[in-house]
Amino acid sequence: MVSSSVIYAAVPISLAVALGLIRHWRSRNWAKCLSNSCLKGKTYLITGANSGIGLETARALVKRKARVIFACRDLAKAKEVAVAMREEEKCGELVPMYLDLASLESIEKFVEVVKVGFYKIDCLINNAGVVVPLAKDEKTKDGFEIHLGVNHLGHFYLTNLLIDLLKKASPSRVVMVSSTLHEHGKLNFNDLNLRAEIEAAKKGKKDRHNPGYCNSKLMNMYFAKSLAAKLQDNCVDVNACCPGFCYTNLFRNFVKWYHYILLAPMALLFMRSAKQGSETVVFCATDYGIEGQTGKFYRDCAEYTSKYNFTKEEEEKLWEVSEAMIKARKPLQN
């Protein structure tokens, strides 16, 4: 007769095995980047490369012998990560550099240093991003709403300042890490700083999807489309991608300790690891099969058709307003 202690031990083991099989079954649909080309001699610049998807993207590029510039706000952590990665991979080159996308001045200083140290940039990966509860009413150093300022304007300004280095490396690439959450975005050009939504959030109104984050991801999409059109004759491919729903520290401002327990089943079935999330980013940055294709949106290493109704009028308006906001160094007055 089987003892009760054996039964008690068998139940959690069986459960763990079952959950592992379910996880494995789910992850079969998550694509992997099959390109393993040697990238020796190529320079990649990644924003937010010291953690999460950016870190795993950098690791994949270093394994392929690329030179990778870690553009990070936390320089100490970037250096620490770079040291550890050098010991692990034994190949490639890692260059940690300070960049604060919440400061236009920091972006300008960063680009000055890059232009002194590097002749060309083969691929710019705009990966860094923030998600903050609107009720906190956080702003950048230049006074922009934090999602608008960091996720969109910061990368918009950085990319435009680096265009000459991208042209020198042609055929080169720009990869915009966006999200399918852009489909929930809605641009109000009279209130891009979301004052109305922020005031409502302060009064307790809750949105299922953070308007600031969704709008910034929509702006990423529009920026990629606009830039692709502007650079199509310069052999600079510009594409956007969605890494999927990933388990990273991006949503740390929203998650409490008890959420880890409540969300465990969903995390098991739907959330990817940072490495799994990086696969499509690496694909867009390295796969030679898509060279010459520009203005596309990718998910699971394949082209994805967005449900958002993009318009040329909205695209052009966003570019014009973005330039004006950066030039004015202050948010639009609402």
UniProtKB/TrEMBL annotation:
The keyword Oxidoreductase applies. CDD domains: retinol-DH_like_SDR_c_like. The chain crosses the membrane at residues 6-22. The keyword Protein transport does not apply. Keywords: Membrane, Oxidoreductase, Transmembrane, Transmembrane helix. Gene3D superfamilies: NAD(P)-binding Rossmann-like Domain. GO terms for molecular function: oxidoreductase activity. Pfam families: adh_short. InterPro entries: NAD(P)-bd_dom_sf, SDR_fam. It comes from the Eukaryota. This is Uncharacterized protein. It comes from Pieris macdunnoughi. The lineage of its organism: Eukaryota, Metazoa, Ecdysozoa, Arthropoda, Hexapoda.
